[in-house]
């Protein structure tokens, strides 16, 4: 009845068609859903971040070129960066400031950043860099206070016009590093017009050029107080300097282009600041240093201490020297004073004491003669109580000659060598230092039989009373060789002793003049100032006029100045191993001689090349009056009135009676020597030296000085 329906189509059902449609739509939307989630964020990201009340977004990603106009100072909470496409961001600062942000303020290899009339202030926060973009165009912009990384880092070019880069620093130290102000990466190009680089510190210098980088400087250019370099431009880089000179007026975002040099303090030392010109400073009293003194590239500074003290309680590196600068310290005590040295640091007759955190961080060259370094300390487990030297800048050389280290504590030891060179010469002593004297290797050239007592090498300076002479470079102040003494210049810097019978004064000036005085005790006691008789003065032109031989001498023949080393003096130097090598180097010597004493001894002070140069050495001979061959040709020496006439020759030492308590104190008289005093009291001269802690085996004693011959009850 129904037939065979297995091959027949079933009749349609009314509900089947709508269900199939619904299922199909569900499958379609299921496929679209993931795509929708991908498309929605892309649509949202097409908008630039929202601008805050100051006129700049607090952070975010910029996807389209934009100009921001600041209406107030801005504090970023994060980084402003570019998306996947190249954008140009322009900030018209209106004289305002941008600071804040955890790390980089502007960052993207796709961003061209235009900055106008704005200050980028790093706020001393630690950052890898402050600006890292493709191209920077900065006009009337100040980059200040960026720390740990460069202020500016670009992948292609930095074009700066009327820009100040001041007070930026890097915490890394390496030759050719990233620069503290600008990192000029490989194959980048930089064109600058009217730029000031000032007080940028660390790494490869203010700007460090990498291989293939080029820098062109036009207009004015100021380089001041940048450490260790102003611009580090090694082989493979190009610095074309078309600048016309330092900038003036205002620079950057309204800052001063010139900062005044630090004024002299009452003690004679400049206050904190940047030293851009070579100078000699003579201390008149103790100095309190309250900040940092920076010595710029190619600047040479000399400090004559006159036995005074420079001290500080500020925890910092107080003296900082650029790579090609120099700092010389002579006859001065240092308390709490520290050094960060990239240049040439030299000390002669120093006492350095009571300083924390390590005294010297040396990446340059440092040489010390006649130093006492005691009671310095560090609390850092990996630090040093006195010196850390290393060769990050291909230097890091330090030498100590005739010096002593006592009671220095903490860290890895007194002297810490990190791949550089420490050299010990002459008599170098270590006493009661903890945990050790030396960490690392040293070149040990010390005398094997050294038994010198550890004493303070700093000596109070005897300053004769001042006069008002003609300038040292006036016609009256110069004359031909053997014409007698020029008029007496102002007496200062009298810090070289000829035993206890004379003093050499070497004041500064365009034409240096050196004087010799026969010194006398102060009638009121054994403290300076004392009075004396002027014996002789010579200036540099006089010295240069004599190739080798006598320059001038005093009227009595007891003082003479010569050029060259007479054979008997050279032989004495040749007996000492420390002079063996230096005597092989041709050099010009200036010899000041005075004597003889009652025992026939003549004292000689030998200078290297210049009247205000380094002391090469001192020796004594027994060969009669040093200027006996020119006595008759000399006019009378000019004198300052004395309480009593000066004797022609030093008298025998008159022993003094014991005090009521049994002690014996000898007051040094003109012409006294340690050996003569020892003979008078029938004691060994070493007893006198040890009882009074005399420096340099008693070579420097002065009239009026009190020497203990015997303790009370002895």
Condensed summary:
With 714 residues, the protein is mostly beta strands. 9% of the residues lie in helices and 37% in strands.
Q: How would you describe this protein?
A:
The chain is mostly beta strands. Helices cover 9% and strands 37% of the residues. It has six helices and 45 strands. It is elongated.
List segments where confidence is low: pLDDT < 50 over at least 5 consecutive residues: 1-16, 37-45, 462-492, 521-531, 632-651
Task: Give the number of helices.
Answer: 6
The biggest sheet, with number of strands, parallel, antiparallel or mixed sense and barrel status, is:
14 strands, parallel
How far apart the termini lie comes to: 156 Å
Mean pLDDT: 81
Helix content: under 10%
**What structural category characterises the helix and strand content?**
mainly beta
Proportion in β-strands: 35-45%
**Overall geometry:** elongated
């Amino acid at each position: 009845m129904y037939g065979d329906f297995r091959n027949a189509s079933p009749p349609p059902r009314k509900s089947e068609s709508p269900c199939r449609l619904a299922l199909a739509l569900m499958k379609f939307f299921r496929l679209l859903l993931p795509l929708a989630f991908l498309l929605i964020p892309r649509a949202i990201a097409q908008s630039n971040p929202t601008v805050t009340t100051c006129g700049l977004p607090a952070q975010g990603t910029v996807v389209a070129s934009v100009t921001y106009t600041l209406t107030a100072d801005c504090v970023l909470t994060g980084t402003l960066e570019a998306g996947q496409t190249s954008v140009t961001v322009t900030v018209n600062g209106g004289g305002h400031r941008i600071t804040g942000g955890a790390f980089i303020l502007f960052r993207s290899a796709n961003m061209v950043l235009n900055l106008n009339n704005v200050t980028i202030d790093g706020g001393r926060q630690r950052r890898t860099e402050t600006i890292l973009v493709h191209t920077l165009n900065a006009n009337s912009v100040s980059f200040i206070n960026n720390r740990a990384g460069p202020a500016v880092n670009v992948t292609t070019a930095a074009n700066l016009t009327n820009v100040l880069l001041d007070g930026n620093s890097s915490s890394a130290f390496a030759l050719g590093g990233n620069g503290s102000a600008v990192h000029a990466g490989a194959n980048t190009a930089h064109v600058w017009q009217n730029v000031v680089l000032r007080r940028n510190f660390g790494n490869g210098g203010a700007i460090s050029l990498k291989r293939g980088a080029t820098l062109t400087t036009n207009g004015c250019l100021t380089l001041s107080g940048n450490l260790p370099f102003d611009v580090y431009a090694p082989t493979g880089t190009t610095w074309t300097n078309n600048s016309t000179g330092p900038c003036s007026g205002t620079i950057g975002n309204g800052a001063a282009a010139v900062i005044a040099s630090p004024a002299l303090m009452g003690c004679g030392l400049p206050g904190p600041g940047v030293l851009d010109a070579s100078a000699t400073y003579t201390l008149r009293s103790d100095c309190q240093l309250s900040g940092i003194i920076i010595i710029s590239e190619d600047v040479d500074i000399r400090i004559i201490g006159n036995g005074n003290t420079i001290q500080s309680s500020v925890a910092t590196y107080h003296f900082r020297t650029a790579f090609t600068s120099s700092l010389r310290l002579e006859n001065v005590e240092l308390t709490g004073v520290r050094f960060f040295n990239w240049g040439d640091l030299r000390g002669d007759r120093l006492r350095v004491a009571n300083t924390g955190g390590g005294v010297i961080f040396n990446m340059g060259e440092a040489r010390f003669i006649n130093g006492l370094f005691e009671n310095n300390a560090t609390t850092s487990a990996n630090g040093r109580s006195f010196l850390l030297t290393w060769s990050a800048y291909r230097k890091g050389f330090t030498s100590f000659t005739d010096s002593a280290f006592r009671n220095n504590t903490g860290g890895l030891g007194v002297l810490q060598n990190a791949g550089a060179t420490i050299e010990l010469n002459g008599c170098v002593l270590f006493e009661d230092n903890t945990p050790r004297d030396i960490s690392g290797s040293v070149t040990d050239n010390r005398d094997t039989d050294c038994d010198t007592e550890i004493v303070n090498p700093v000596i109070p300076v005897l300053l004769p009373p001042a006069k008002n002479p003609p300038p040292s470079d006036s016609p009256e102040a110069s004359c031909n060789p053997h014409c007698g003494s020029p008029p007496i210049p102002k007496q200062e810097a009298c810090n070289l002793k000829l035993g206890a019978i004379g003093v050499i004064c070497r004041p500064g000036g365009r034409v240096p003049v050196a004087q010799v005085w026969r010194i006398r005790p102060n009638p009121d006691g054994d403290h300076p100032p004392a009075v004396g008789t002027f014996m002789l003065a010579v200036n540099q032109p006089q010295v240069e006029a004599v190739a080798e031989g006598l320059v001038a001498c005093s009227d009595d023949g007891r003082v003479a100045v010569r050029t060259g080393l007479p054979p008997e003096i050279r032989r004495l130097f040749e007996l000492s191993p420390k002079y063996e090598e230096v005597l092989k180097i041709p050099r010009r010597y200036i010899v000041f001689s005075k004597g003889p004493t009652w025992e026939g001894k003549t004292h000689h002070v030998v200078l290297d090349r210049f009247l205000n140069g380094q002391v090469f050495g001192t020796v004594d001979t027994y060969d009669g009056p040093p200027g006996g061959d020119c006595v008759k040709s000399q006019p009378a020496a000019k004198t300052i009135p004395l309480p009593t006439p000066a004797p022609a020759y030093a008298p025998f030492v008159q022993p003094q009676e014991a005090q009521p308590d049994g002690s014996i104190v000898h007051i040094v008289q003109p012409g006294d020597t340690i050996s003569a005093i020892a003979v008078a009291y029938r004691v060994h001269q070493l007893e006198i030296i040890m009882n009074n802690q005399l420096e340099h085996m008693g070579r420097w004693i002065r009239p009026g000085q009190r020497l203990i011959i015997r303790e009370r009850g002895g």
